[in-house]
Design a protein that fits this description.
Residues 1-18 form the signal peptide. The protein is an alpha/beta fold. The protein folds into 2 domains: 2-33; 49-116, no CATH class. It has helices at residues 2-16, 52-57, 101-104; strands at 20-22, 31-33, 49-51, 71-76, 91-98, 107-116.
């Protein structure tokens, strides 16, 4: 009986502590990434990096309402096509998926782009 209660209490504590921290024991949000203070450590956050050609290969139905708000970084906009969901991918940069755009077909929208290549 004690083993069962122990397992239940451990499971409950895991469920209650739904915040994740990287380089911190006390996360202050759902995901809290704290920089390392060492001089030679490279800090930053890297989103998934794709070319427009690689995103084109994924098709027009992979990203939908459940991916609303997804962020990617387009490294090269010259390949693939700019049809459908990729209509506004014309330059290198950060893009966010707006699932409700274009009659709920969804579009990748520029968050921060570097100009047309």
């Amino acid at each position: 009986m004690k083993k069962i209660l122990g397992i239940i209490s451990i499971s409950a504590s895991v469920i209650v502590s739904a915040q994740t921290g990287i380089n911190t024991q006390n996360p202050k949000a759902t995901l809290d990434v704290t920089a390392k203070k060492e001089i030679l450590t490279i800090d930053g956050l890297l989103p998934p990096r794709l070319t427009r050609a690689e995103l084109t290969e994924k098709g027009n139905t992979l990203y939908g309402i459940e991916q609303d708000g997804a962020i990617i970084y387009i490294t090269n906009p010259s390949g693939g096509d700019n049809l459908s969901q990729r209509e506004y991918i014309e330059s290198k940069g950060l893009y966010i998926f707006d699932a409700e755009a274009a009659n709920k077909e969804g579009r990748w929208m520029c968050l921060f782009c570097y100009g047309v290549v």
